[in-house]
């Protein structure tokens, strides 16, 4: 198997303000995987760093805000916790975007490294001010 060459990964900033969840998470997943690059190969991790800002103002279409459910099991018998999209959006909006992007990545070892390069922030303030973003 060919070794991955050392590379300088680019940084992208994605503004989620008034964006639809599915469309913005597809763009983020493509950037994390590096699908738009010329030398894209599925077995090599050639993606970029992605900073997603304004995650609290992300939206969904239709009546999904009431119908979409997130499930979490505590490990005890009968303790399946459910919460709706609107409940999670109030408490932890970063979790919604992370869950959607994770579902769009491949289910293998590379996905763990790719998801570590995703930085999600609730508002427009983030600690990556000194980095040159590629748009």
TrEMBL record:
This protein's UniProt keywords: Ribonucleoprotein, Ribosomal protein
Domain of life, per lineage: Bacteria
Keyword Ribosomal protein included in the entry's annotation: yes
Pfam hit, one: Ribosomal_L13
Cellular-component GO terms for this entry: ribonucleoprotein complex; ribosome
Gene3D superfamilies: Ribosomal protein L13 (3.90.1180.10)
SUPFAM superfamilies named in the record: Ribosomal protein L13 (SSF52161)
Listed GO biological process terms: negative regulation of translation; translation
Purpose of the protein: This protein is one of the early assembly proteins of the 50S ribosomal subunit, although it is not seen to bind rRNA by itself. It is important during the early stages of 50S assembly.
Similarity comment: family membership: Belongs to the universal ribosomal protein uL13 family.
Protein name: Large ribosomal subunit protein uL13
């Amino acid at each position: 198997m060919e070794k991955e060459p050392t590379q300088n990964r680019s940084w992208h900033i994605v503004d989620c303000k008034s964006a639809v969840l599915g469309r913005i998470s597809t763009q983020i997943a493509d950037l994390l995987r590096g699908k738009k690059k010329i030398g894209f190969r599925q077995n090599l991790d050639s993606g970029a760093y992605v900073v997603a800002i304004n995650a609290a103002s992300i939206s969904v279409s239709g009546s999904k805000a009431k119908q979409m459910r997130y499930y979490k099991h505590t490990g005890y018998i009968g303790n399946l916790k459910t919460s709706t999209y609107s409940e999670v959006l109030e408490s932890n909006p970063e979790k919604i975007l992370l869950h959607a992007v994770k579902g769009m990545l491949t289910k293998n070892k590379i996905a763990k490294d790719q998801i570590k390069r995703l930085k999600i922030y609730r508002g427009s303030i983030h600690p990556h001010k000194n980095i040159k973003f590629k748009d």
